[in-house]
């Protein structure tokens, strides 16, 4: 299956759920189209979003399947590095 969702990244859906690009985590609809079942585009978490997330004191953002946890440090590509 091809995907519009990048590796080693987290995406947030309209309902606030975090997912990575694993099939069981994102679901086939988001994985194939970049949109969740309600038709809303899933947004990739950038460094600013990770910092905001961590400012709530709830730890580093991690997807539901647990495969991807992001740090608030930008990687070489400018997106948050994986922990
Ligand atoms: Zn996941």
List the helices and strands and how they pair.
Elements: E1 11-12, E2 18-19, H1 23-26, H2 28-33, E3 43-44, H3 47-55, E4 70-74, E5 80-82
Antiparallel strand pairs: 1-2, 1-3, 4-5
Bound molecules: zinc ion.
How would you characterize this protein structure?
The protein is of the alpha+beta class. It has one domain. The chain has helices at residues 23-26, 28-33, 47-55, and strands spanning 11-12, 18-19, 43-44, 70-74, 80-82. The strands form two sheets. It has a three-stranded antiparallel sheet, with no helix packed on it. The protein has a two-stranded antiparallel sheet with strand order 4-5. Strand 4 (70-74) and strand 5 (80-82) form a beta hairpin. The structure holds zinc ion (ZN). Zinc ion (ZN) binds next to loops. Zinc ion binds next to loops.
Task: Please sum up the structure shown.
The chain is an alpha+beta fold and 83 residues long.
What is the β-strand count?
5
Tell me the span between the first and last alpha carbons: 26 Å
Number of helices: 3
Mean pLDDT, to the nearest integer, reads: 93
Bound molecules: zinc ion
Strand order of the largest sheet: 2-1-3
Q: Could you name the ranges where pLDDT drops below 50 across 5 or more consecutive residues?
A: none
Strand content: 15-25%
Count of the domains? 1
* Major sheet details: 3 strands, antiparallel
What overall form do the CA principal axes indicate? globular
Q: Please give the share of residues in helix.
A: 10-25%
Label the structural class. alpha+beta
User: Secondary-structure element sequence?
Assistant: EEHHEHEE
């Amino acid at each position: 299956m091809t995907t519009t969702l990048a590796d080693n990244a987290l995406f947030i859906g309209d309902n606030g759920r975090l997912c990575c690009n694993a099939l069981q985590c994102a679901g086939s609809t988001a994985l194939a189209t970049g949109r969740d079942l309600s038709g809303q585009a899933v947004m990739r978490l950038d460094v600013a979003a990770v910092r905001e997330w961590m400012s709530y004191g709830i730890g580093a953002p991690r997807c539901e399947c647990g495969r991807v946890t992001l740090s608030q440090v930008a990687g070489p590509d400018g997106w948050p590095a994986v922990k």
